[in-house]
Design a protein that fits this description.
The protein has one domain. The protein contains 9 helices and no strands. Bound molecules: fe (ii) ion (2 copies). One fe (ii) ion binds next to helix 4, helix 5 and helix 8.
C-alpha cells in the first residue's frame, strides 16, 4: 500500500495530514494530540466567507470512529496471525507430503505461494499503520508447524482435512470482515462522505485473499479431505483450535 503514495507525499516538509494516506490519516486521527483544535478566539481571517455558507460543500472524508479503529486493529492483527499460521502449516506439510505423494508438489507450492503473498501483505499493512502483532506470535508459529507436520505424517487425507478445516474458519473470518467494511462504506456514502481509496483497496484485497482461501478449501476437498480418519474428530479439533486462536489474537 505504501507504493500507492507518490514520493512527494512522504516529504517531511509537508503537514502531517498531507503526508498520510486516507486510512493512515484515519488511524492517526484517533490520537487527541494529532487533532487540530479550533478555539472560539480564531482570527476573523480563518472564518468562512458568508458566501461559503450557502454554497454546497464538497463531500468530505472523515476519520474512522474509535470503535471502527478498534475493529480494524483486531481484524488485521488476526489476519496476520492467520497467514503466519498458514505459511507454517504448508511449510511443515510439504516435505512429508511431497515425498509420499510427488503429484501433490505443484499444488502444495501453489497454495504456499499464495499464503506467503497474504502474509507479506498483512505484514506490510501492520507495519504501515503501526498495529502490533499478536503477543502470541511465537506460540502460533510453533503450534501451526506441529499441526502441519503431524497431519502430513498421518497421510494425504489428514493433511487435506487440516486445510479444509483451517480454510473453512479463515474463510468465515474474512467474510465477516468484508461484510463489516462494506457496511461502513455504504453508511459513509449515505452520509455523503467520501470513502477513502485506501479503505476501498483494503476491502478489495481482503476479498481476493478470501477467495484464494476458499480455493484452497476446494483443492482439499477434491484431494479427499473427507476420507481422513477420523474426519469429524480431526476437523472438529482443528476448527475449534482456529476459533480459539482468532479469539485470543483479537485480544492480545
Ligand atoms: Fe491465506
Ligand atoms: Fe489458505
Amino acid at each position: 500500500m505504501a507504493a500507492l503514495l507518490p514520493r512527494t507525499a512522504l516529504s517531511p516538509a509537508l503537514p502531517l495530514k498531507a503526508r498520510l494516506t486516507p486510512l493512515a490519516f484515519q488511524l492517526r486521527a484517533r490520537a487527541p494530540s494529532h487533532r487540530t483544535i479550533i478555539s472560539s478566539a480564531a482570527s476573523p481571517a480563518t472564518e468562512p466567507e458568508p458566501q461559503s455558507l450557502h454554497t454546497p460543500q464538497p463531500a468530505r472524508q472523515k476519520p474512522l470512529s474509535p470503535a471502527q479503529q478498534a475493529f480494524l486493529d483486531k481484524a488485521l492483527r488476526v489476519n496476520q496471525a492467520g497467514e503466519l499460521a498458514a505459511t507454517r502449516i504448508y511449510t511443515a506439510q510439504a516435505p512429508p507430503l511431497n515425498k509420499a505423494y510427488p503429484h501433490l508438489r505443484p499444488l502444495m507450492k501453489h497454495m504456499y505461494d499464495q499464503e506467503a503473498g497474504h502474509f507479506a501483505y498483512f505484514n506490510e499493512v501492520l507495519a504501515k499503520h503501526r498495529i502490533r502483532p499478536t503477543l502470541l506470535y511465537p506460540m502460533w508459529q510453533a503450534a501451526s508447524t506441529i499441526l502441519g507436520w503431524s497431519t502430513a505424517v498421518m497421510g494425504r487425507e489428514a493433511a487435506m482435512a487440516c486445510t479444509e478445516a483451517v480454510e473453512t474458519e479463515i474463510g468465515e473470518h474474512y467474510n465477516g470482515q468484508v461484510r463489516e467494511l462494506l457496511l461502513w462504506m455504504a453508511q459513509m456514502e449515505e452520509r455523503g462522505e467520501v470513502v477513502g481509496e485506501e479503505l476501498r483497496r483494503l476491502v478489495e484485497r481482503i476479498k481476493v485473499i478470501r477467495d484464494e482461501e476458499l480455493e484452497h478449501l476446494d483443492h482439499a476437498v477434491a484431494n479427499d479431505a473427507k476420507e481422513a480418519k477420523p474426519y469429524e474428530l480431526l476437523t472438529g479439533v482443528i476448527r475449534t483450535g482456529c476459533r480459539g486462536a482468532i479469539w485470543v489474537s483479537e485480544k492480545v
